[in-house]
TrEMBL record:
Keywords recorded for this protein, A-Z: Transferase
Signal peptide positions on this chain: none
Protein's UniProt name: Glutathione S-transferase
Residue ranges of domain GST C-terminal in the record: 86-205
Entries under PANTHER family matching the protein: GLUTATHIONE S-TRANSFERASE GSTA, GLUTATHIONE S-TRANSFERASE-RELATED
Short name of any one Pfam family annotated for the protein: GST_C
Matching Gene3D superfamilies: 1.20.1050.10, Glutaredoxin
Enzyme Commission number(s): 2.5.1.18
Taxonomy of the source species: unclassified sequences, metagenomes, ecological metagenomes
GO molecular function, one term: glutathione transferase activity
SUPFAM superfamilies: GST C-terminal domain-like, Thioredoxin-like
Location of the GST N-terminal domain: 1-80
Amino acid sequence: MITLFHAPGSCSLAVKAALTISQLEHKITLVDLGKGEHLTPEYLKINPLSNVPVIEAEDQYISEGAAILQYISELAPDANLLPRPGTIERAVALKWLLFVYSNIHPHFARAFSPERYGDDQVDIKKKAEAALQPLFGLVDDQLTKTDFLASSTLSLADLYLLVAIHWEGILDTPLTEKYPHVASYKQRLLEIPVLAAVYNPEFMH
């Protein structure tokens, strides 16, 4: 049994999707960021960095979304969320997963919580949005070559990117208005029944 500590609409949604697709036995413990539940002494014992996602598995707490997603894919290889180990296809899929995790996500963090990064919150948010543009330009170009981010099949990278695209609501100019292939990609993914069932209820809030 895996327990996922999940904040709706956050990056932990990608982990929720991976668990659902993999059909692994799991339960969800909701963490209300708005109420500061991630800052309670109880949660800080689980994750001193006070963020989500965290999973509890085999009597251990594991944080960092990219590590959790890879762990899930290895527990359920038949779900095909990552190609086989030792293949160039796996390296490409991990490259795009980490591209979203280490390049795109940090700029959204600044856009959502500019007060954590300095006094001029308007400028911080503006620079975060500007920094996202070339990154999504690369994504948009990649999506002219493949149906999904890494290849012709769904991977962990798509589960993470779909959350990031949804975060466009915090930006002055929505990404799906500027990048047509990103827009059609989002629509295409949300037409997949299992993804629609996981993502749409949280995207509607």
